[in-house]
Amino acid sequence: MLTGGGDCPGLNAVLRAAVRKGERVYGDELIGFLDAWDGVRDRRTTPLTIETMRGLLPRGGTVLGTRRGSPFDTPDGVDQVKRSMSDLGLDALIVIGGNGSLSVACKLHTEHGLPIVGVPKTIDNDIEGTDLTFGFTTAVQIATDAIDRLHTTAESHDRVMVVEVMGRHTGWIATHAGIAGGATAVLIPEIPFNIEELCARLVRRHDRGRYASIVVVAEGAEPESGTLELDAKTYDRFGHVVLGGVATRIAEAINRQTGFETRVVQLGHVQRGGTPTAFDRVLSTRFGVAAIDAVHAEAWGKMVVLRGERIETEDLTVAVGKTRTVDRELFDEVASPFFA
Ligand code: F6P
Questions:
Q1: 80 within 8 A of 59, measured Cβ to Cβ
Q2: Which domains are delineated in the chain?
Q3: Which residue's CA is the nearest one to ligand 1's atom 15?
C-alpha cells in the first residue's frame, strides 16, 4: 500500500482496516511503501501488521508519509515500479490517493498491466465516481468550528471576516462550512464572483442593522473577469497551482468599497491536520476493508467508492482527468440564499 498526494485525516484508518481484514481473514502479508512513489522507486518499505497498526484509527496524517510526484516524471520510473513489485514478490498494490495518484494508478494498470486497486482520498471531495471522500467532513468541521468562533469577535467589532478555506478547483468545503457556520456569503471556484455585488449585499445587510458578516471563500475562487485583480498564480514543481491569498484581495476590496472594517482568516493546512471525525473514521475503515476485498476479487483498475449508503467499486478511468464540482442545486437552494 502507499499513500500519495496531500495528506488527509483518515489515511491511517484505511491502512489499519485493510491490514486487519487482510491479515485476519485472508492471511495476507502487507507492506507499506514510504513516501509514496519515492518509496516504491527506492524500495523503502515498512511491514504493516495488526500490531504495528495499533492506535492508528484516530491519528491524522499518514504513518507511511506522502509525496507528490509520479513514476511517469522520469524516463525509467515505470520500470522501477515494475522491478520493485516483482523483486518484493507483490501480488497487488493499493494506491490511496487523490486525483493525481489515482490517474497514475490507472495508467500503470491500463498501459502497463499492473495489479492495482485505488482508494480515493482528499479533503476537497472533488473525485468523480464517489459520493464522498474521507477527510472532507473533518475539514468541514474544522472550518465550521473556526467560523463559529469568528461570529462573536466579528459581532463585537462590527467587522467583516473573510475566511479562506481549502478547495483548489471546487468549493465543497466552502459550501458545507458556509452553510453549517451561517456565513453571509460563500464564494466558490465553480461560480465566478462579482465583488461589487458582494459589497452591495454586505451594505444592505448592515443597513438592516446586522452587525458583522462572515464571507467564506474557497482558495480557488475567481472574480468575474475584469472585476478584481488577483495576485499572479504560482505553481509547485509538479505543476499544481499554489493558492492562498484571494481572501486578502477580497477583504481589501470590501474595505475600500464599503468602508467596513475587514479581517482575513486563512485556515490553510489546519484543515488537513489532526484526528478524523467519526464519520471519516467509519468511511475510511469501510474503504480499507473494501480495498482488500477488491484485491482478492482481482478487481484491478478499480477504486472503492461510496454510492448512497453502499461501498462499491468503480473503474479508475471514471475519476481520471475529471473534477467533481459542487452540487449546484445544493448551492443555489441552500448556500446562496445566505447572500440576501
Ligand atoms: O488537494 C488537497 C489540498 O489540500 C488543496 O485543497 C490545497 O490547495 C492543496 O492540497 C495544498 O497542497 P500542499 O499541501 O502541497 O500545500
A1: no
A2: 2-135+276-318 (3.40.50.450), 140-272 (3.40.50.460)
A3: 6
